[in-house]
Amino acid sequence: MFKDLDPLLHSQLRLAIVSLLISVQEAEFTFLKEKTGATAGNISVQLNKLKDAGYIDITKQFKDNYPQTLCKITSVGIEAFEKYVKALQSYTNV
Amino acid sequence: MTEKESLHLINEMIGKAKESYITQGTASIVWGALIIFCSLMTWAQYIYKFSIGFDVWLLLLIALAVQIFLSVKEKRTKNVKIYGEQAMFYVWTTFGICIFMMIYYQNFTRADHQIFLLLTMYGMPTFITGGIYKFKSMIFGGISCWALALISLYVSEAHSLLLMALSGLLAWLIPGIILQMRYQKNKAKHV
Questions:
Q1: What was the ipTM of the complex prediction?
Q2: From B4, B14, B79, residue closest to A23, measured CB to CB
Q3: What tens digit of pLDDT does each residue of A57-66 get?
Q4: Local structure of residue B56 (DSSP, 8 states)
Q5: pLDDT grade, residue B21 (50/70/90)?
Q6: Which residue on chain A is closest to B75 by alpha carbon?
Q7: What DSSP assignment string belongs to chain A?
């Protein structure tokens, strides 16, 4: 039986961000920008959507007098990602 | 986005994140080369009865200062924290402190088989690092240190220094060169 795909994760940039965050402990905004190749504005919008859903935590602080945005996946985010991958597998195994 | 495209994207991003786990191996190469150099120099002084006028092992202190400087610099430019990074920091700091304590103890007691203890210690962080990062060359390097430690019990103290030089080669220099090659290969892929 087909499972519904989480609409929040089934979007190219958001899925890319979550896939990156699931592989590391914590990443700066610049890391996500560098790896996804997306614009800062677009990443910022998608990060806020993921944060509102409780999938990621965002910490804003200063490092060497420069603003720094740190992103980290939450346990809710990990669970959602696992469910999403399982759902994808159930589709592709057909 | 189709299901296959989603899976492809996930794989691609996980692969890109994994690149952050590849280090330049500079510290490993520097320490490996220094251990080899200091061991061989001390061995040569023992065997050929000459003195260079200072304790060659003091070079390790200079390397330590350089290492701290490079680590601080790297931390400033790094924009990602990988799993196990903090654990590794504590493992290698523990190792550094224990080596310092051991050398102090040895100078204090003038105990025999000093190199046995040092090689046993060398094996510990090397084996743990190799195991955590699934880096076979370092796992082998760690085991080699322990094997060389056992062999050192059966050879003279002067010749034990050759075993120490070999440990520097197997535990740090070779894994460091492998890491450097992987790093360069990965860098070339993105040029």
A1: 0.89
A2: B14
A3: 999 998 888 8
A4: G
A5: confident
A6: A63
A7: -PPPP-TTTSSHHHHHHHHHHHHSSEEEHHHHHHHH---HHHHHHHHHHHHHTTSEEEEEEEETTEEEEEEEE-HHHHHHHHHHHHHHHHHHT-
